[in-house]
């Protein structure tokens, strides 16, 4: 398992409810790929969304995000953290 | 207080010790600007570092990062989180 930060762009206008619904949709199927989405942060003005996850691979993260309708624009491994 | 995600680029080769030292340097003076750095994540291969903070403004975040020698390339407010 590794940690990943993924980035979604173009989400201008996202609401707290929409972020929660998207996160819940990911959580509902994440175990099918061995992924766990830990947190997500969003800025409705810039349209940026960041998601922090633990997963076996970036492809596993992307498969969950694609199935729930919000493909990530970037997925970065984050092997170091404090 | 608001939450911010800041991004540092070009940190290729950063080690766990260097990330910890940079984070400790920020923590040592953060209260002078009313900032709290909650977490940081780094990828030595891509050179990306993300820092999550609570702060009164993006300028306050940048002032701490500048004084500790690692100016952020981007600082994004993150008003929504799950």
TrEMBL record, chains A, B:
NCBIfam families in alphabetical order: Ni_bind_SCO4226
Name of the protein described by the UniProt record: SCO4226 family nickel-binding protein
Organism of provenance: Streptomyces pseudovenezuelae
Organism phylogeny: Bacteria, Bacillati, Actinomycetota, Actinomycetes, Kitasatosporales
């Amino acid at each position: 398992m590794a940690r990943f930060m993924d980035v979604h762009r173009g989400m201008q206008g996202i609401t707290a409810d929409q972020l929660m619904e998207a996160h819940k949709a990911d959580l509902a199927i994440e175990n099918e790929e061995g992924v766990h989405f830990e947190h997500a942060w969003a800025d409705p003005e810039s349209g940026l969304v960041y998601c922090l996850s633990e997963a076996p691979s970036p492809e596993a993260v992307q498969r969950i995000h694609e199935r729930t309708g919000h493909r990530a624009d970037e997925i970065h491994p984050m092997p170091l953290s404090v």
